[in-house]
Amino acid sequence: MDEVAPTTEQIRADRAATWVTDVVLRDGAVAHLRPISPGDREAVAAFHRRQSERSRYLRFFATIPELSARDLDRFTQVDQDQRVALVAEIGGEIIAIARFDRLDPTTAEVAFNVADAHQGRGLGSVMLEHLAAIGDELGLGRFTADVLPENRQMMNVFTEAGYEVAHRFEDGVIAVSFEIQPNETSRTVREAREQRAESRSVARVLRPESVVMIGVSRREGTIGHKVLEEIVAGGYTGRLEVVHPEVPELLGITTTPSVREVEGPVDLAIVALPAEKVHEVVADCAAIGVRSVLVVSAGFAEAGEEGARRQRELLRLVHWHGMRLVGPNSYGLSNSAQEVSLNATLGAPSVRGRFGLFAQSGALGVSVTQMARQRGVGLSTFVSAGNRADVSGNDLMQYWIDDEDTAAVGLYLETLGNARKFFRISQRLAARKPVIVIKSGTSGYGVPPGHLIRRSQASPEALDAMLRQSGVIRVSNLHQMFNVAQLALHQPLPEGRGVAIVGNSSSLAALAADACVGWGLEMAREPASLAHDASMEEVAAALEEAFADPSVHAVLAVFIPPLVGDGTDLARTVGRVALDQDKPCLTTMTGMDGVDETLSATKDTPEGPVTEVVPAYMTPEDAVRALNAVERYAAWRRSSRGTLVQPEGVTWQSLDAAQEVAGDALRSAPAGRELRPEELEDLLSAVGIEHDPAAPGEPAAGWPGEVVPLVVEAVEDPLFGPVVSLRFHGRTAELLGTPSYRVPPLTDADVHDLVDSLQGSRLLTARGVDRAALEDLLARVAVLADAVPELAELQLSPVEVRADGVVVHGARATVRRPKVRQDAGRRSISR
Known about the structure:
Helix content is 36%, strand content 24%. Helix 18 links the parallel strand 26 (554-559) and strand 27 (585-589).
């Protein structure tokens, strides 16, 4: 049966449906964005009437008291192609309108109108981002606008967005014009605004000045009662309200009979009611101005289809009223800062410290916090996302970027929701502090109940490469996470891979040396083996000598306890010597594991006393593995991240031409197909890739000595978006079969690393081929894959890399209508 091509109206309606989203505003609240519809006539008229005369004048250049029927028709009846309009809502009330009207195939005029009561919340900026992304999707290249000189707010929206804005004054107005394709500056501006907004939304959760507890039973051992016990015992410093319809007091807190009788606004509501009662309470919370909701109740998506429906409705209701949601089915959250002291979890508080922790599941929250206490690793903040309906690890990372109380971050991720956003944010966070990740379930198998994800088609090696690209330290379990965390939190980062081993056991020293060699660390000097009964002066002298060696970048102290005493003096000596060093020290000392105060020492600084501790490990192998992970992270931080690639000759017009090739193919085959030879040539030539299909294949005797055969691929992964890979071709691949991977957009440093991380990349240097030409080809493929999500697969094979350039001998491409790509150039709450 022949495929039936969708009508123009169907295509436009389907496309407009992808523009519906929720966004976080500058103050941390949530707004709903959607295309305007004819049903909005009365709402638009009411919006206009609420505006001040000045706002009407700045928008229409005249103080129009009422919109005419003709105006309302024109504003609400749009075709979502030649004319596009979006509205922003909170609680069902329109608070902003943004639109563009095409002037010609590549240019459109834009206009914005923000409600007086909601100005200053960043609505103009976020709606410009969405209009620009939609315009780019529809083939537009430029926006224009006429702005009155006194409308400084509107001018700031344009000039501060990161675009290159041209403007001129004529006929009493400022004529503004700018290209809308994302550039490095506009991306930086968008991401900074997104970070500030999402950080503020999380701050409402983690630094609440007021909390209302809903669903507390009088019976001990129930969930609500336990959470309230921990809040009270932890000494929460803010205003605490407890709702109970029958008793006047619980745990020393005077209660309020109903939510609507609580004095608002309230930063955080904690709900521990049965799942079927949560929706009604959320509506009550909205009525008193609650800003965020933590739901510890179960019975949602983890409980089957009815629970999943209940969870979707809960999220819709929370966002409808401008709030954020943690959970449902959450273990709770905590903030140990003295000015907050909030432990709203089902367990005892952890030691106060500087490690931020995020766990997706409630059950894992118990294990994570217990292990933190056992290891003596102090927590700054902790969040259990439960079913992760809204607030996710991405949100927490945005908060931790600027959180001075947090020096390192750990995340247990059972699923990756918005993977592209995760990689982008984790890279920014890792540039400031270590990010340690336990990741399971990448392929979608074993996904915990309540978590809805896209399944990845990429290999586990691809995920590892993407995490390395982001600077993330990936570990396999909680034991390894805390091994790395205790080193990253309490010792300086190493500046190289040279290790010195000092100890009183040749056997332990040998194990440590073997581990160093096995993990690729360098033995900077022979292990210093002291006598079993060496004095503390001898121990200190050996450690100081190791630290003083310029080829040593880290010192590993491996000791067994002396025959006399409990080893306390030995531990204190190690801690004292390490205190004044700018190199990390870690130890294996029998009977110690984690952060032990006997391995600590204190010194005076201009800012006050500073106490540091040498982390202890049960085995030398554990210590070395943690050191290797931290050293690789330190090397990533020292490296340049580069600038976004911009291949010569590739413009937004040429990328539009590539998109048009894919679009034309899909119009004739909606389910997707392989591109025909002439289409393939048009696609490749749009980004300056020359294809020589007439060249012969691999000769029987092998490739000439001065040529390296490679395969360059780009695929559109459902989870990660575009993924570019590089591998050897033919017989060479049989020996060196592991490809290298990167996720666009790529910087020049990413492209360089993509080549360097290819197993056997030394062959390129050995044969003296043109590496610069190869990197230029990879950059063009990356830009193409990033710009054309319809490009399901592109394979260039074989690619001859020669001394004088590259030749692409074979190529094929398949296009398919993609799912909406996550993190696609506009701010959006996407988990």
